[in-house]
Batch of 3 targets.
Target 1
Amino acid sequence: MRLGEFLLGVEGIALMRHLFDDDAQAAARLAEIRRIACGGEAVYQLGADVSIVDVASGYARWSQTYDNPGNPLIHLEQPVVWSILDAVAPGAALDAACGAGRHARRLAELGHHVIGVDASPAMLEKACWVPELCRWP
């Protein structure tokens, strides 16, 4: 994967968000796409070889670090998700694709009865912070 390829994808998503409602933002995104694609800057050729693994192995590996400090995904999405969770009255909650259980844990702290499900046994193991509440097939 090359940095330029990744950035073009992100800029493409940003362009689609503004394509029909904000001409100035759409134009800015198009200009950035042109700069990345045609600029010839060496930095955009930087990349990393990314090994391809099956889903179970990938999530098993990711489960070891997913919730560690420094994961930019958590920094971006957690405040948004938790503001939604904070506004919901306690009750029964399903956390589908719960991963390591961050949101399930937050729901439980807010007084919800939570069921978390995930396709990754390694992620579920991390999510099971109250073992007596966890049921394994």
Target 2
Amino acid sequence: MQEKKKQLKQAKTIENVYNSAYWHLSQQDFTQAEMLKKLNRKTENQDWIETVMTDLIGKNYIKSDFDFAMKYAEAAFSNENGQISTKYKLQKRGIPEQDVANAIEQVLTEYHFDFYEISSTRLQRVFEHFHNTTKEKLYSQMTSKGFSRSEIENAIANHPAKDTLKTQLEIKAAKADLSTEIVKLYRKGKGKKLIRNELHARLINLDDFENILSQMEESGDIDFYQSCQDQLNKKSYNLNDRKDKPKAYAYLARKGFESDEIKEAMKASDEE
């Protein structure tokens, strides 16, 4: 059974409300929306809450939404965060969208932050090299910090180790054994053309493809003629039917088999 959340001790006087507000503000800055939420948990007396909020705003203990957003944005940008996450976090904290936009515009006017430069600086500080990450992970991390795709691409282009940054697919391709991958696809009933296309799509180096394939065919490890026949036998095409015969041919062609292999398989099936 889930334990019930402990009930917050309710304020008996307006001084209790002040004390609660001051305690929270001693921990960190809060937006007006956040402080209202805190005080509403402390008391149901809206007059007390209004009095305390008005007093604290008047004394600048609680900033206006615009001023809060300006201070937050300046700190965020100085700490190498981008605009996108900064806008999102401010709105999540209850700052109206227009106040967020105006505050950020004001900060950029006053301080001239260059997010292409900031993103490049951050990337080079966090990643001296790319040995332990992938392009996808890097994009995810930089996006979470609020940078746009163009800012991230520019940062990568300016990184000294840019040529070593690989995608997950490229890393897997570099580790792949061509012989093993050919056999895997062959055992799935795929012909030479389809095997080549799939390996190419996975960025696996195919420089030795023909040589390895020839060696496997000579040793009898693979036999595309037999494989083509096996794939045809799994289907119930009537090769004496004018409509079924082209369907059978098209099916085997889609599987990646070559014309000679298909014709031989269909001829063998006719003779059975």
Target 3
Amino acid sequence: MSDYHYDVLVIGTGPAGEGAAIAAVKQGLRVGAIENRGVVGGNCAHKGTIPSKALRHVVKQVIRFNQNNLFHHMGESTRISYPKVLKSAKTVISKQVDLHTAFYNRNRVFLHLGEASFVGKNEVKVRLPDGAVETIRAKNIIIATGSRPYRPTDVNFKHPRVYDSDTILEMNHTPRNIIIYGAGVIGSEYASIFAGLGIKVDLINSRERLLSFLDDEISDALSYHLRDSGVMVRHMEEYEKIEATDRSVTVHLQSGKRLRADALLWCNGRTGNTDSLALDKVELEADHRGQLKVNDSYQTEVDYIYAAGDVIGWPSLASASYDQGREIAQAIQGLPCRFVTDAPTGIYTLPEISSLGKTERELTEARVPYEVGRAFFKSTARAQISGEDVGMLKILFHIDTFEILGIHCFGAEASEIIHIGQAIMNQKGEANDIHYFVNTTFNYPTMAEAYRTAALEGLNRINRL
């Protein structure tokens, strides 16, 4: 058994862990990292963000082929099986692993591959794949273990027709129809993906509307386009029991409805990966969803233990997690630390959604005088050329100061387009002004010029141009 001594020990090598480890090295600290998969990248690279978005991209290509008039007139279209699409999507995982492994090697972060658990103050043991145990001592410890799908005990996830958002990436057949329980971000994304493959989808939502944290108009647009693609969205429904046989899965809803399909995808919440850490050894406790409470410097209730990423809950975005990890390195050195709260949402439905700032509902409830500027992609030359003319860009701005209060985008490349507005929103004082988009020349034709169109439309509403 060997002893290792680090200034910083990071448990987990996903976005939060990587951000923390590399930033700490740049601060001149000796850093070690523990990963239980055998390869770096965490759930983001292997089960979450990367494979699901790569899967979406392949499906999007299939859809565009089938909708292209050239091939349609030639009598050509294609239906591709889910396993084939999945195989194509998975090619990106090895590239991501190689890339991120190089980051750790180049920055001289010492990697320990095994299962981590606390032993006592400033001390962690790592159980290696061969059964051996290493004990590591560190001045500061960062928990960045991520999360996994929440699995209620009354659902049999061992049944070959019952999946969660991790195991769906191993499904080896193409169902004719599928029930998705849970209409959050992950459920909505997979509803788009399966519908794009021509699979009939029942999307069960326990709430009144889809993704209620979005601007109402964007949520309504998502609901419309899911239904337009063949998804049956069922609001205000909860399951009573689930029966799975060799031939099908039946979901019994509390409303009395019975839904039957070839497969069930469970997408109802996530659980922080803290249950195997032996937190009691350091007098630390996770909540009922396995998440840790932190302060504005990402410290847990134990002052030398920090946490970041999915394991601390909202916003549970890879982008935010990476920045949170980097900020911990600042906090450990006693430098100013930013608590990441302003990350834009990126939702990879078909079409995708991205949002930043306030919604109309929030501004109305706060009695803020605002106006709306919209640009519909169907009127944008670039969208017409590319054939992706569904969606719009929406800007909310203050009537008196012209400050940009919120930006909401639904349509192709929304998660890219949002960053133009984000750059202006982050400017201080008068620099955050909707007139920027009117007074700036955008390339033509581009999707970016939607900002100019939206700004002009909004300013025309108040006759202040």
